[in-house]
């Protein structure tokens, strides 16, 4: 079975993408704000206890993000004037209203990230999925005052009908397909794929690959520098962050250093995923 969601498009054959101010790279911060259930397994640090109820070890590790880590990350983002693209589980709106209020105060862009990261968005029939997406969207809209334009499923999960349902509900883009450095149009819905990275992602870098804060900082620098040299067409760098990972005391300073580097470079458009979608639609060839 081939991927009928998008066409093959080698980047060397496309019309150039132009960013505002002749920037070479559009950079956004994808800040994952998630709610986990204490009686369900999810992202785990120690698999040996992942099936226990309660799994105090792994649940507590994840819960650190909402209690402590997010506030450390917000302080760093504020230092550099960065607006987050907040990938928010709809359950966050009820469980952590202080986080939503902090994001509203900072005019974050709000993207729907499913209901909870304790459940993936898969194996849903069309009507069931439509109802699920509608409830998620309405919950986020009510809490944030913003109708989400972007979608990323928990663990980047979709069904084959998700793009068409997203279009029906007023969404403009998804982050689930991580196969490009530029936005592109999906085949069967007026929905864009905006680049999101599983390589430049703190969860994978620290927890799956076991790399250090210094290595994370260098990866961010190397990633940006390579995209800056990939001329003449503009690229996108999405820096994916999880407060329970990068918000840990021993790691936060490396996010600070990485943002210092990013914000000191000419040729960078520091923006949100919403603004990337809007600009691409306004300027890109059909």
Description of the structure:
- There is one protein chain.
- By secondary structure, the chain is an alpha/beta fold.
- The protein has a single domain, classed as Glycoside hydrolase/deacetylase (TIM Barrel, Alpha-Beta Barrel), CATH 3.20.20.370.
- About 40% of the residues lie in helices and about 10% in strands.
- The chain contains ten helices and nine strands.
- Helix 7 runs parallel beside helix 9.
- The longest helix is centred in the first third of the chain and has 24 residues.
- It starts with about 25 loop residues before the first strand and ends with a helix.
- The mean pLDDT is about 95.
SSE topology sketch:
Layout lengths: L24 E9 L22 H24 L5 E4 L3 H4 L1 H9 L3 E4 L13 H19 L5 E2 L10 H7 L4 E2 L9 E2 L6 E2 L8 H7 L4 H17 L5 E7 L1 H4 L5 H12 L4 E3 L2 H11 L3
Helix pairs in contact: 1-9, 7-9
List keywords for this structure.
alpha/beta; 10 helices; four-stranded mixed beta sheet; TIM Barrel; 286 residues; five-stranded parallel beta sheet
CATH architecture: Alpha-Beta Barrel
H/E series: EHEHHEHEHEEEHHEHHEH
Q: Into which percent range does the helicity of residues fall?
A: 25-40%
pLDDT averaged over residues: 96
Q: How would you characterize the largest beta sheet?
A: 5 strands, parallel
Class by alpha and beta content: alpha/beta
Point out poorly predicted stretches.
none
CATH classification, class level: Alpha Beta
- The coarse silhouette is globular
What separation lies between the terminal Cα atoms?
27 Å
Organism: Nocardioides thalensis
Pfam families: Polysacc_deac_1
Protein name: Peptidoglycan/xylan/chitin deacetylase (PgdA/CDA1 family)
InterPro entries: Glyco_hydro/deAcase_b/a-brl, NODB_dom
